[in-house]
Write a structure and sequence with these properties.
The structure is a homodimer. Chain A is α/β, with parallel strands linked by helices. Chain A folds into two domains: about 170 residues, 3-Layer(aba) Sandwich (Rossmann fold); about 200 residues, Dehydroquinate synthase-like, alpha domain (Up-down Bundle), CATH 1.20.1090.10. Helices cover about 45% and strands about 10% of the residues of chain A. Chain A contains 15 helices and eight strands. In chain A, the strands form two sheets. Chain A has a six-stranded parallel β-sheet with strand order 1-8-5-4-2-3, sandwiched between helices. In chain A, a hairpin with a 4-residue loop joins β6 and β7. In chain A, α8 crosses α12. Chains A and B meet through β1, α8 and α9 of A and β1, α8 and α9 of B. β1 of chain A pairs antiparallel with β1 of chain B.
Chain lengths: ~375, ~375
């Protein structure tokens, strides 16, 4: 096992009716900026529940944070925080609203040039507004971690930043808020959580049997519960199980002492930046190709994953690995997500573009730092 | 799934050489009281490592905290904290030192009568000294939770208390500190962690598939790694895996949204108070009897546990449950722990004494509140 540090102080309040408890956790006398996305919280009653729970607080609102939260949008919220002297940010929505709100929280006090530098330079964030969340879309794990991914359309960039200072103070997770999610978002969330797990698990073995099993626990549960919510979107327990899986998938726990990859995400971000794929779609496209390309280096973990999550025990190792990748692809497709680049009108000509963009910023990917420009192209050729 | 709250802000620093990093996490200028137990930290070099890391701090020491930490001992440390105006407590040891230090931290500011009231009355703890730990014995999970169990020999009582205020600010877990543990303590730790898990898992099902699998992950890993450390006490990875299992077993995670029991612990505490059994011994004695007694109410979970942890799939349900309990007993015995009350000179006459003590304070045990005085006696008769 590798040495590690684990720290996750976000308080999680989980279950039916939890939104009504908001004021228990939010310090009194705070001027709150409620941030949200495209307005689904107006239609599904979440906005009303939140505002009722916030009676007694001074509340401003900032809506319109888009999927793949956009720098130029977030800058406007930063201005509001400064002008209105906001004390506390409450993100109500999914991972994009949360990530965008984390950016707002840190940018509020950033005075060392353009706050986009937080995403591209090696900047240490020294202060941030406190924030919390009411999660309405289980997917990214942002409700209980220190990370965010922000897009800058003008520059055509999509980049992560991390700071303990932007960890939510608390997050409220009420599975009922997800009953009315569009199917596509439900599916994307399941795939996002699934790929978060495998990026931290299907690497090379450093003797972390508990963390491995914790990872497999999430994967098996997603495989089991995913079809249930598609069959019955108001199945409370299935919604709750998926919500808890997504949080556990990226809260820092399963990566403790283990080796992470993140190559699929890094390549996937470029597909989103270039062709507008949903984040989960980009992951479902890239992962199979990356695994085929890396099947020697990931051999033992692919075999273990195949056996424990998919029950694949027969045949020689190569056949089992092929079978394991095929099962994973079939799972994505069974949820209705297309996994071939051509399905998204990405032709082979585009592969070099992806590789060039990664190479231009010196990105060497994978847990062995062995995936450079030519390997990215090879990986994309193996995607289908 | 049931509604729940999860909060665990303790920072964990895990791995070889971590003690040297102490000063990174301890605020400067603090007057520190280093608490410890019987002195094994002097023999194994941990004390030296800690003191070196604390160069630059004013450090007092309080040794002699015993297994099943004793109220009268802890009172002396409370006096020191008051007289010397101690700022910060650093527990260096196992669960007993940690639990005792938690009591010291809260008793320091307790001024509403005898601080034993924190353990027996419904007292809300309003202030505590900050504390942290260097863990040397993986077992209780106290390094990352809000609980402590304290003994009061004069009253013949052993009781838990809980407060978020006594959560360690950080805990340092270096598996190398456990290389020289006496075999008995190593074994006790494995059993303690194992029973912590089953108390939160082998109950009744409320649809928590992820939490179930997280519990099974810990159990399977303990079963796998336990024999390795007995065979080779300096096996770093096996020590690390057991240490991480013990922390995960009682950090609040696997009980999220699920149903806990704790009947085995409550009965076991009485065996310790009356006959001086090690905590883990008491659990190994009580658990099989409790499961036999509760096999209808715990039916589905016992079957699931038997199948997933022990691979028991054949035979009718009763046979599988018997086989599952037998496997568990055999596991405890394979570690060298005796599981029959008679092994500890506890005769059937004593069973009523246990039951009377629990009944005297109105304890009704088990996840169905169905274990009263007569059931406790029946359970003990089924122990062997």
């Amino acid at each position: 096992m590798e040495n590690f540090e684990y720290y996750n102080p976000t308080r999680l309040i989980f279950g039916r009716g939890s939104i009504a408890r908001l004021a228990e956790f939010l310090p009194t006398g705070q001027k709150v900026l409620l941030t949200y996305g495209g307005g689904s919280i107006m239609a599904n009653g979440v906005h009303r529940q939140v505002r009722e729970a916030l009676a007694g607080y001074e509340v401003l609102e900032f809506g319109g944070i888009e999927a793949n939260p956009e720098y130029s949008t977030l800058r406007k919220a930063v201005q509001i925080c400064r002008q209105e002297d906001v004390d506390f940010l409450l993100a109500v929505g999914g991972g994009s609203v949360l990530d965008g709100t984390k950016f707002i929280a840190a940018a509020r006090f950033f005075d060392d040039g353009d706050p986009w530098r937080m995403c591209v330079d090696d900047v240490v964030i020294e202060r941030a507004l406190p924030l919390a969340s009411v999660l309405t879309l289980p997917a990214t794990g942002s409700e209980a971690n220190a990370g965010a991914v922000i897009s800058h359309r003008e520059l055509g960039q999509k980049r992560p930043f991390m700071s303990d200072l932007v960890r939510p103070k608390f997050s409220i997770l009420d599975p009922e808020t997800t009953f009315t999610l569009p199917t596509r978002q439900t599916i994307n969330g399941i795939i996002d959580a699934f790929v978060h797990v495998v990026e931290q698990y299907v690497t090379y073995d450093v003797n972390t049997p508990l963390q491995d099993r914790q990872a497999e626990a999430i994967l098996s549960t997603l495989v089991e519960e995913g079809p249930k919510v598609l069959a019955d979107p108001r199945n409370y327990d299935a919604r709750a199980n998926i919500m808890w899986c997504a949080t556990q998938a990226l809260n820092g726990l399963i990566r403790c002492g283990a080796i992470s990859d993140w190559g699929t995400h890094m390549i996937g971000h470029e597909l989103t930046a270039l062709w507008g794929l949903d984040h989960a779609q980009s992951l479902a496209v890239v992962l199979p190709g990356l695994w085929r390309h890396e099947k020697q280096r990931k051999r033992n973990k692919l075999l273990q994953y195949g056996e424990r999550v998919w029950g694949i025990r027969d045949g020689d190792e190569n056949a089992r690995i092929e079978g394991t990748i095929a099962k994973t692809v079939a799972f994505f497709q069974s949820l209705g997500v297309k996994t071939n680049p051509a399905d998204y009108d990405i032709s082979e000509d585009g592969y070099a573009k992806v590789a060039d963009r990664l190479a231009a910023r010196g990105a060497i990917l994978g847990e062995h730092d062995a995936i450079g420009r030519s390997e990215v192209i090879s990986i994309l050729k193996l995607c289908n």
